[in-house]
Automatic annotation (TrEMBL):
PROSITE patterns found in the cross-reference section: VOC
Native organism: Snuella sedimenti
Coiled coil: none
Name listed for the protein in its UniProt record: VOC family protein
InterPro entries the record matches: Glyas_Bleomycin-R_OHBP_Dase, Glyas_Fos-R_dOase_dom, VOC_core
Pfam families per the UniProt record, alphabetical: Glyoxalase
Domain VOC per the UniProt entry, residue ranges: 2-113
């Protein structure tokens, strides 16, 4: 089994589309004003966004994007006008993370984890 895509809701699909293009995702399906789909620049994952009238209640959605050069990426995105709610920092779970919000308030975590992404020291043995 392989994860194909994740789909998130948006109140303003045009604004969300520009945000995710700025993050570096490539638009591969443009069915504005109702739906868009992006491909990640590395790997085979995709992200879809669909238009909704209201956002779900609760804690919202958190999306993680990994980059080998996290600090450089954050500097580049800041120069493009994106605002971060936390700068890159090392976390106790052995990931380096920076946080920002998309236009709909979803949390975006840019991170680097290296081997600890899927194989932290506390991983359950196979």
């Amino acid at each position: 089994m392989n994860l194909n895509q994740v789909t998130i809701p948006s109140l303003d699909l045009e604004k969300a589309t520009e945000f995710y293009k700025t993050l570096g995702l490539q638009l591969i399906v443009d069915a504005l004003p109702r739906y868009v789909r992006f491909e990640c620049p590395d790997g085979d994952s995709t992200l879809s966004i669909h238009l909704v009238e209201t956002l779900p209640n609760g804690n919202g959605i958190t999306i993680y994007f990994e980059d080998d050069n996290l600090d450089t990426l954050v500097t580049q995105l800041k120069s493009k006008g994106l605002v971060f709610i936390s700068a890159p920092e090392d976390k106790r779970w052995l990931w380096r993370e920076a946080h920002l919000l998309d236009p709909d308030g979803n949390t975006i975590i840019l991170y680097y984890a290296g081997k600890n992404r899927k194989n932290p020291p506390w991983r359950i043995p196979k």
